[in-house]
Structures are given as structure tokens and as C-alpha cells.
Amino acid sequence: MNKFKAFLQRKNIIFSGKRYGIDALGAMAQGLFCTLLVGTILNTIGQQFNIAFLNKIIVTLKSGENVIHYTVGGLASAMVGPGIAVAIGFALGCPQLVLFSLIPVGFAANAMGGAGGPLAVYFVAIIASECGKLVSKETKIDILVTPIVTILVGIGISYLIAAPIGTAASAVGTAVKWATEQQPFLMGILVSVIIGIALTLPISSAAICAALSLTGLAGGAAVAGCCAHMVGFAVMSFQENRWGGLVAQGIGTSMLQMPNLVKNPRCWIPPVLVSAITGPLATCLFKLQMNGAPVSSGMGTCGLVGQIGVYTGWVNDVAAGTKAAITTMDWVGLVLICFVLPAILSWAFCLILRKWNWIKEGDLKLNL
Predict the structure, then answer these.
(1) How many domains does the chain contain in total?
(2) Is the pTM here over 0.85, yes or no?
(3) Is 222 found in the same domain as 119?
(4) Own/partner long-range contacts of 160-163 (Cβ < 8 Å, ≥24 apart)
């Protein structure tokens, strides 16, 4: 037993909640941001400002009768699986051959996982990383053995568990779809809270919204929930993370807080409460609708994609004759729901929890 422990230590394999629940999750958030979220932002900027380079098709892939065109942003988004896998491998201290072999593993896990692709990549990348580390530099043909073992284990595990994980993630989407069929008040609370939580968890809220074509009032509630978490965490943690953290979370992703939430789940209370308030306000009072691209419903304030999506929907509705004009009330509702209320309410709720000592100084600190 001692020899086995010494072997694991030599291989830098440490079974701990910190390594898998904090280090790996933090790396996953960064991998997701550098691929899917940045790609979506680049596509949105290109479309809204008519930037030729960002809108240009630079890669075309053909598979039988299917033809897929990729822009710069599209390519970045398509690499979400490899990006997450390599980020996790780096956080786990993988040797180079293992790290590079995680590229196809991440792509396979994300593709097989569907809407739950990022979550599937998280589990698969950890298993493949540790298995790859076990055999790394143990043979004279390491350059063959290590990549083969890492890739076969990773893709084999993906084949077994990625789809079920995707199905589980889609169950969240089913709950959202059910909520859209309810009356606006209840729908506003459920959709806002669920999508807001999904945004911060290692699940692609954007992919869920896209898969469900979540638009209209439900899409507006989803935007409210995402903004409650992104703006909420950005403002709540300002004293720990200052301007860098404000930008990283406010127009980046609240998933950066996931490692901190594992350590202290009470930090999640303020943004969840805010989403439960702004959701029904969006649906019942301001009638905020997302009639742009459904993926924008799950983006919140990331690159202002959610707000641009709402605006695009207004423009499309006006052009189609289903909306008379963009009113002052539309703009007031958008600004209040997406920015003002999340900032004020999350700060107030966090202040109360800090006084109760439920949230302590340093609990929201990011490793930026």
C-alpha cells in the first residue's frame, strides 16, 4: 500500500476535493470562457457592427450532404471541448504528452454530451488525465503509449458516460421548458433561477437555451437570471477582486466563482434571491422578451451578448410589424433588469450575509 501511495505521489495524482472540486472547476471555467464565450462574443460583434473579417467564412467542412461553415468566432466556439479538457489537464499537472492528447478527448466528450457537453468534458478529462499520468514515462516508447492510453481511455469513457451526462443536463432544460408553459409570475421565477444557476455551474446555459429555442418571455427571464448572477457576483466580490474581477465576472462569466461556491455555498444566496426577484419583474412588469438568437438568452452580460440579443429581437419585431416601436419603457426595463437591480440587490443581500458572518472576507476571491 505504501508503495502504491508513493507511486501516486510520484505521478502527481492526488485524490482530493480541492484538486477536483476547486482546481479543475476553476480551470474549466477559464477553458469555457476562452472558447465558447469568446467565440459567441466575436460572432455577435461581427454581426452587429458588420465587420467583414469576423463575418467571413474562413473554414468549410463537408460530411456527406452536410456542410458546416465557420467564422472566426464559430471556430473558437467549436473548440470548447478541447479548451476545457486542456485547461483541466493543465490544472492537474499533466505531462505534455497527456496534455496534448486531451485535445481529441475533449472534442469527443463535448460532442457526445450534447447540451451537457462541458459537464461531460469535466468528468472525462479528469479520468483521462489521471490515467494518462499513470503510464506517462513508464515505458521506452512513451511517445506512443501515453497518447494512445490517454485518447483511448478518454474517448472510451466519453462513449459510456457523456450521453447520460448530457441527458441529465437536458433535464434542466426540460424543467425550463415546463416553466415556460406556466403563468408569467411563476415562469419568471423558475426560468430566471434555473438558468442563472446553470450559467454558474459547469453546464452550458447558452447551449440549453439554444437547444430549447428559449425565446420570448422565457428568454427574457433567462437573461434576467444570468445577469443576476454575473452582475451580482461581480459587485458582491468587488472588495476582494476590484476592477479585474468586476470585468471578468460582469462581462465574462460567473462560473469563475464555482470553486468558491464549492467551499462556501452560502455565497450563492444573494444572486439566487436576486434572480427570483428580477425574473418575474422581467416577465410581468416590463414584458422583457428575447426574440434574438436563442443562445443569447443564456449569455447574460457576457460581452453584452444578452442585451444585444434583446435589442436585435426588438429590431426584428419592428421590421416584421409585430412591434410598433422600441419604447423608453423597453430601454428602462432592459437597464434595470440587466444592470441596476442585480447590482443594488446583490450588494444589499451580500452585506447582510457578511454581517451574519455567512460570507467572510476572502470567500469570493478569484485567482486572476
Answers:
(1) 2
(2) no
(3) no
(4) 161/120, 161/123, 161/124, 162/108, 162/109, 162/112, 162/113, 162/116, 162/117, 162/120, 162/124, 163/112, 163/113, 163/114
